[in-house]
Amino acid sequence: MTNAKPRRHIAVIPCRWGASRFPGKPLAILGDKPLLWHVHQRCLEAKRLDGAVVATDDERIEAACHDLGIECIRTGKHRTGTDRVAEAAGRLPAEAYLNVQGDEPFISPTAIDAVSQALGHLPPGTHAVNAYTELVDAGAVLDHNVVKVVVTAQNEALMFSRQPIPYPKGDRPKYLRQLGLYGFTSAALQCFRQLQQGPLERVEGVEMLRYVEHGHTVRMISVTDDGVAVDTPEDLARAESLLTNYAERRSATR
Predict the structure, then answer these.
(1) 58 and 17 in contact (C-beta within 8 Å)?
(2) Number of structural domains, the chain?
(3) Which of 8, 63, 187, 188 has the highest local Cβ count within 10 Å?
(4) What pLDDT score does 2 carry?
């Protein structure tokens, strides 16, 4: 693949088998297809991408991709999805890469396009683009599986946490959900791989904290996305109940 014609922007969907909360999650069936298929479809529906590839270290996931006709790259073991995307990027020439998490079956193609567009207008020194949306459900604010983010007036990430941040002491806060949707240049991905995990990333389990802890800028962009990330089997059941309504809404907008 190293001699392949460079693509402009490509989505890489990192998938692993051994998620502690939901082993085998990428191949969990939603509707009549594996979860990763739904994520791949959302990427194909985006207008600004030149393709979408699954990156995995697991032969079962690789075999499923082959059966589904999904391009797949086999990688080594990695600490995070972005580390896996960085390895895959070394074999996929492109101008920039979007890490679309494999547990976001309803991720908005419009949000994917927004991150792609933002990658073309990065301020100097900015290493990544990360999408977010406002949280309106109190249960989601309290859910430790939902990562929250606080941003500067310039829409740069200050902190990510699984706890509700900011704390509502002096005013009523607005809670923002970090989406599993990140954009990087090739150089930014290689920088990510070379940085050491810091104490905040290790304790929170949020990979974008690696940039923040080392003083690199993460650009946050607001998008419209009302999907649900699948972190647990209970989330999958919720997603199943949403699938019919989601399909009907999409058909109505075409």
Answers:
(1) yes
(2) 1
(3) 188
(4) 46
3-state SS class at 81: helix
Q: Where are the alpha helices (DSSP H) in 77-161?
A: 81-89, 109-119, 138-142
With the C-alpha atoms ordered 87, 13, 185, 133, is the resulting torsion angle positive or negative? negative
In a domain, 14, yes or no: yes
- E-only strand ranges, 93-147: 94-100, 126-134
Q: Where are the beta strands (DSSP E) in the chain?
A: 7-15, 29-30, 33-34, 52-56, 72-74, 94-100, 126-134, 148-151, 157-161, 176-185, 217-222
Inform me whether the pLDDT recorded for 123 exceeds 50. yes
Q: Which region holds residue 249: left if phi is over 0, alpha if psi is between -120 and 50, else beta?
A: alpha
Q: What residues does 218 pair with on adjacent strands? A: 128
Does 183 map to a domain? yes
Q: Is 69 helix (H, G, I), strand (E, B) or coil?
A: coil
Angle between helices 35-45 and 59-68 (to 10 degrees): 50
DSSP state letter for 27: G
Whether residue 2 is contained in a domain is answered as no
pTM of the model: 0.91
Any residues with CB less than 8 A from the CB of 246 and at least 6 apart, and which?
A: 106, 227
CA gap 98, 120 in Å, rounded: 12
What range defines the domain where residue 212 resides?
A: 7-253
